[in-house]
Design brief:
Elements lengths: L24 E6 L3 H5 L1 H12 L4 E6 L4 H6 L6 E7 L2 E7 L2 E6 L4 H9 L5 E4 L23 H5 L7 H14 L6 E4 L6 H16 L4 H7 L5 E4 L7 H11 L7 E3 L4 E5 L15 E3 L3 H24 L5 H5 L2 H15 L10 H12 L8 H4 L3 H18 L5 H14 L16 H8 L5 H9 L7 H4 L4 H14 L2 H10 L1
Parallel strand pairs: 1-2, 1-6, 2-5, 3-9, 6-7, 10-11
Antiparallel strand pairs: 3-4, 8-10
Helix pairs in contact: 4-6, 6-7, 7-8, 10-12, 10-15, 10-16, 12-13, 12-21, 15-16, 16-20, 18-20, 20-21
The structure holds D-mannonic acid.
């Protein structure tokens, strides 16, 4: 079977609805993974078909050479497969013009970011990659992606170092700064990234920092599309659906959502033609998604993985855990202000249908990754609001206990696994001489920058967690779920 390329004849229903090579580039994306291919690149593809423009994407992976190796022999083309109970639909996406790996070619990455064509930089690099100081604001100067770049700002390898160097070089050369659009699941993601970039600029480029601050835009955004890691089955299905071998095939659900703060001084693609919603304040949408979708995702990932449920859809078929998912969504919804046009119980119901999608194999272990980076906005922030309102903290205590059980890395009720978390070494060290559930809760709650003090020290909170953790550690997760669901 021949390989998918720009020259491969495709039926119109599958081919991009425009001639990709007629359009120049306008976007540089950092973090060229499956999520970008299923989300921003797909929206851009639609927007190019609907209203054109020089908005194709230069996709950059920070470390892995694989995305460029897969995409470049295919002229950037790849198949996006949408899967649900009704079947699979394939479309070839043409919005990626070029792909490269920053670690292999740092000069090319910087050249893409400083080129006059670059008007927008989008990012999906995961929460942990930025090197943010989440508790104090700005950057964390000791973060492994930040420290070397502060020492040698002229040869950046981390996200903040690259972005800030590119902005500084542009401003210095009289080029307008690009608009930076952080698409990771962080609260107030634009503002967080702006503070960190400006912090980096003040340390590394003090003479240019004020000009960057005055001219660079960092809109916030909420992105949503459930996208499992692609497998050999994804590639096989793409071959069946399009008739070509595609090494970059990506699968996703049919649902997609994008809410964007409309602040693009140098223009933007007509992403609204693809369904994006432009608003003046993204925060209520972001909070809703982080607390209801991502919060219940994290809870079910830890509980599911340790109850022998490898996929999210298995969790939704488990009566006890599905009831806890429902309870968690309701508890998260109770912390949210009313949003005009949004019915939170309908949103919760739609989330449950999406989680149960029989055609998507989304691994609980994949979602369980990086808990220390996710729990603050997904679990602790709504728990704090619930505490102030005098509400029921049990759903959040259960989710926290399930993460702590995962962090102990004991494999009595599951296969051996690694804790994939940037704080894994620190966690292993602090738990070394700790035995009881109470001690584990006290130790993990005190991890630096993790749990807000007002929650950590709230009367009864740690006891609520340790009671649940004790059952998880002694009787197993299945028993803990049954008991929790019965309360
Ligand atoms: C998930 C998200 O892996 C995770 O932590 O909660 O990636 C989730 O699938 C997406 O945010 C959905 O848009």
């Amino acid at each position: 079977m021949s390989r998918l390329t720009a020259k491969a004849p495709l039926p119109p229903a599958i081919a991009p609805g425009y001639h990709p090579e007629d359009h120049g580039t306008g976007i540089v994306h950092l973090g060229l993974g499956a999520f970008h291919k299923a989300h921003q690149a797909a929206y851009t593809d639609h927007a190019l078909a609907a209203s054109g423009g020089d908005w194709r994407i230069i996709g950059i992976s920070l470390r892995s050479p694989d995305p460029a190796r897969q995409l470049m022999p295919q002229d950037g083309r790849y198949t996006l497969i949408e899967r649900d109970a009704g079947g699979s639909r394939a479309r070839v996406i043409g919005s990626i013009a070029r792909a490269l790996c920053a670690a292999d070619d740092p000069g090319a990455a910087l050249a893409a970011l400083t080129g006059p064509a670059c008007r927008i930089v989008t990012l999906t690099v995961t929460e942990k990659a930025y090197g943010l100081d989440r508790a104090g604001g700005g950057l964390d100067p000791d973060h492994p992606a930040v420290r070397p770049d502060l020492a040698r700002p002229e040869a950046p390898t981390g996200v903040l170092g690259l972005l800030t160097r590119a902005l500084a070089l542009r401003v210095d050369a009289g080029l307008p700064p690009f608009t930076t659009l952080c698409c990771d699941n962080l609260p107030r993601n634009g503002a967080l990234l702006r503070d960190a970039v400006l912090d980096f600029a003040r340390r590394a480029y003090p003479a240019l920092a004020d000009r960057i601050e005055a001219t660079a835009a960092f809109p916030s955004t909420m992105v949503d599309r459930i996208t499992p890691a692609p497998t050999e089955a994804t590639r096989a299905e793409a071959a069946r659906l399009i008739g070509y071998d595609d090494h970059a095939a990506t699968e996703t659900e049919a649902f997609h959502q994008w809410v964007i703060e409309d602040d693009f001084p140098l223009g933007r693609p007509d992403w609204d033609r693809a369904g994006a919603l432009f608003v003046s304040d993204v925060a209520p949408y972001e909070t809703m998604k982080l607390r209801m979708l991502n919060g219940s995702h994290s809870m079910l990932a830890y509980a599911g993985f340790h109850a022998g449920l490898p996929l999210v859809r298995d969790v939704m078929a488990h009566a006890g855990l599905a009831a806890l998912v429902r309870r968690h969504m309701a508890a998260a919804a109770a912390t949210l202000p009313a949003l005009p046009g949004i019915d939170l119980s309908a949103y919760a119901e739609q989330l449950r249908v999406r989680f149960a999608n029989p055609a998507i194999a989304h691994e609980t272990f994949q979602i369980a990754m990086d808990g220390t980076q996710k729990l603050p906005q997904r679990i602790f922030a709504p728990a704090l609001d619930t505490l102030s309102a005098g509400g029921d903290l049990r759903p959040f205590a259960f989710a926290t206990a399930a993460w702590m059980r995962h962090a102990t890395v004991t494999d009595r009720d599951c296969a051996p696994y690694d804790l994939r978390d940037p704080m894994a070494d620190e966690i292993a060290k602090t738990l070394k001489d700790v035995g009881t559930a109470e001690d584990i809760v006290r130790t993990l709650s005190a991890l630096p920058g993790f749990m807000p003090a007002a929650l950590r020290d709230a009367p009864g909170w740690q006891t609520m967690i340790s009671g649940r953790l004790r059952i998880m550690l002694t009787d197993g997760m299945a028993k803990a779920i049954a008991q929790e669901a019965a309360t």
